[in-house]
Each structure stands twice: as structure tokens, then as C-alpha cells.
Amino acid sequence: MVSSAGGSGAAATPTWGRRVLITLVAVLVSSLLGVGGGIALVAGRGGGGGGSPTPVPTPSTPSTPTSTASAAVRGYLDAVARGDAVAALSHAATQPADTSLLTDQVLSVSRAMAPITDVSVPEVVDAGSVEASYRVGSERVTETFSVTEVDGGFRLSEVVSELDVSSLRSDRLALRVGGADVTGDRLTLFPGSYPVETGNPRLSYGDGALLVPVPGRVLSSSELAPTLTEEGADAFATLVEDALDECLTETGPAPSGCPFEAGVNSSHEVEGEGRWSAEDDPMDSFDPRLDGTDPTRATSYLTAGLVYRYSYTSEYEEGEQEGEVSVLLSTNAEVDLGADPLRVTFG
User: Fold this and answer.
1) CATH number of the domain to which 104 belongs
2) Which keywords does this chain's UniProt record carry (predicted)?
3) CA-wise closest residue to 306 among 252, 248, 257, 250
4) Among residues 184, 204, 228, which one ends one of the domains?
């Protein structure tokens, strides 16, 4: 028997039909929500939400290699010259393992120090090598680039050079290259000139600059050995000179905290105050150098002839007599240039 609702003459939808329709709608909505949830999750990962730092983009191999060998070299050098790290890496046949210093920020610092200019690349269509020339700052560089044919196009076999800095790194002294802190034992860099800094104005790594003329080289760190800056050497010298001058104003034969003493005859009873003087200038022997195991510690050997003059009485002599003792100053001065304030010690 068919019933009617609201006086309509239309047949009512069967109960089982409504259930099927509702079920299908629910499944469709659930599927859409599932897809939407998946999209939100991917976007959340890529967007660096929650304050997480955005990683430095590292390109995979581009889908379309450069059509000619010379275009690959030109594209790479132009990218480095304008400070576009991602574009430079896109010309690599193989991506470097470490890209921490292969960034626009580091390239910007390098460009400010010594820009790459006057890039010249002859037209070469199909070859395994391309000779190119350019300037890094004022230095002219000519290099033959190895080019690899990949998927009908060309990419560079090498786009970076590496430098082992394990011998330079120390817990006591920072290492910064191109304005970025170095935490590993190896540097990976594009061609350019980079400031290498300690963060301490009294100390430097060599002359404070690293030239990377071409890619594909294993560089030497020998010219980046830690050294005293003029400011550091002057600070050390001032400390030593002031300390010795103060010691020479002492009146006793064995001044406390000073690197010298006079062996006064045991039969002499010193009367009043003695007087120290230097026959030679101790600073003539001042030659500061950094400790081999701690690059923040500077030392210098010091030597000079000193004299201690005094008045004395003795049971073996009548009245007050004058005596003097010659002393050879022979000591090492040391200062921790990472300390604040600086303090010199002798030993």
C-alpha cells in the first residue's frame, strides 16, 4: 500500500534508497576530506611552519640540460657571478654533498670582497672541455672546465672546490667563512674570494682571506694558520712591558709575581729599599707566537740583563756597605687572547 505525504501525489523515496544515497554522500565527503588533509600535511611540511628554519634549496638535476658545452660553462659562471647559488648548482652533473656554504648569502659576501667579472667563454657546441677566463677581484683566471653530456645536453663535472679545515678548527676559536659559522671539518665553496674570520680582533686566519680561483680543486689550509693580528701583538706587548716595568719598581730582592729575583749574599742584611734596573731592554727579545695546541694562547721568550743594587750591613764588614747582584732575566710570557680582561703570566 502506498502512502502519501503533504498531499503530494508523487511516490515517496523508499527507505533503503535514502540510506544508499546518504551512504554514498558520506563516502564522497570522507574521500574529499582525506585528500584535503593530505594536501595540508604536505604544505605544512614544505612551509616550514612552527618557526622551523627554511632549508637551503638544493636543486636536483634540471630536467633540460644546457644545449651546448659552452652554454653550460657560461650559465654556471654567470650564476656564480650574480650570486645565484641554486642556478649555479643546477649546472652540476652531480650535486655536492655539503651545500651549507653554497648559498646566496655567502656568495653575496664573496662578491662584495672580490666580484667575478669579465667572463669570457668561447663558443663550443660539442666537447668534453671548455676553456674559459674571468676575473676574481683583480686576479685573472683561465681554466679548462670538464663538461659531461647528459640526456642530450651538457653539465659541468665539477662546480665546487673543497678545503680540509680540521687542523684549523678549535673549541677556543671560531671559524667563519663568508660570514657563516663553520661547524664541519671540510669547506665546499664556489669560485670566489671569501673572508675567513675568527670573531676575535686579536687573532686571524692567515691574512683573513681565502681565494678559490676555480672549481674542482682540493685546496690547502697552510696559508690560513691562526696568527696574531697587529692589534693582538700590540696588546700582548703592552701587557708584558707594563708588567715588567712594575716589577722593576719593586724594592725587594725577590718581587712577588715577577719573573726574576736576586740572590743576595746570606751574610748581608739589606738595609732600606733596594733598586732594580735593566741593563738591556727586555722587549728587544719579544717575539710573540701562538701556541700550537691552543690558538688563543700567545707566548714569547724574554731575556735581558738586570741588576739589583742595595745597601747592607754585615758582621764581617764595618758600617753600611753597597752591594749589587747581576741577574739574567730568562722567562716565557704568556697571555690568553680569548680572555677578558687580558692578563699576562710569566713562567
Assistant:
1) 3.10.450
2) Membrane, Transmembrane, Transmembrane helix
3) 248
4) 228
Taking only the tens place, the pLDDT of each residue in 160-181 is 999 999 999 999 999 999 999 9
Distance between CA 200 and CA 209 in Å, rounded? 15
Of 83, 73, 93, 97, nearest in space to 190 by CA: 83
Same domain, 311 and 336: yes
| Domain match, 215 and 75 both | yes
Distance CA 108, CA 114 (A): 10
- Closest among 223, 195, 193, 236 to 211, alpha carbons compared: 193
C-alpha cell at 151: 640526456
pTM: predicted TM-score of the whole model, two decimal places: 0.75
**51-68 per-position pLDDT tens digit:** 333 334 444 444 467 789
Nine-digit cell string for 10: 508523487
Last residue of a domain, one of 207, 228, 249: 228
